[in-house]
Amino acid sequence: MNTIEQLVVSGSHREVGRGIGLRFAGAIHRLFDNYDFLQKQLLPFLKTSAGQSFFQSCLKMHQTHFPQYIAELEGLADGSGRPFEEIFAVNLRGEFAGRIALAHPTDGTTPAGVQGCTDCLVLTPDAALIGHNEDGPPAGHGNMYCVSPSMIAPLSRLFVIRGFCPAMPPVLMNSGFCIR
Predict the structure, then answer these.
(1) Which residue in 35, 53, 78, 104 is deepest, having the highest Cβ count within 10 Å?
(2) Residues 91, 81: Cα–Cα separation, whole Å
């Protein structure tokens, strides 16, 4: 059985992101360097005028409505040494995949790079059990960790893939509830 590495981090959203980035910089680089969807589709799309236009519109919307997530992703980029553009775009990979598909129609199947994982969560009086099957891209396998950020009460633990915003995965709350 694989264990999940745990990290406790505190501070503002940006400081939490930076702390995560500093701790997992090597793993984030390996993941992003080997993430085919990022390297072969997303980064080339971001070099086009359509890609930049969509990126800027998403960024503006998130800065307006979700500034704490932007601060966290900026900190993650700073701490890991990855460009913010990559960190932000990977965290919106589903949205970008749709735009890429419009620009380059295929047979209608979901690209492997944007498939997501499936989690099964079981809470007993003695334990919280989490099953995770890594349905995502091969570059993400083995890259999950557990973070306890101080600025998100009453949450206790967030399960995260390195390089991704902790808002995406399952959350184990202090009250014993687990949400996805």
Answers:
(1) 35
(2) 16
CA Rg value for the chain: 17
CB 117, CB 134: distance < 8 Å: yes
Tokens standing for residue 77: 């980029």
Pick the closest to residue 169 from 154, 147, 150 (CA basis): 147
Q: Among positive and negative, which fits the CA dihedral 45, 51, 55, 61?
A: negative
State whether residue 12 is helix, strand or coil.
coil
Angle at 91 between CA 21 and CA 17, to 5 degrees: 25
Query: CA–CA separation, 33 vs 30, rounded Å?
Result: 5
Q: What's the pTM value of the predicted model, to 2 decimals?
A: 0.73
> Can you give the residue ranges of every domain in the chain?
5-179
CA distance 68 to 49: 27
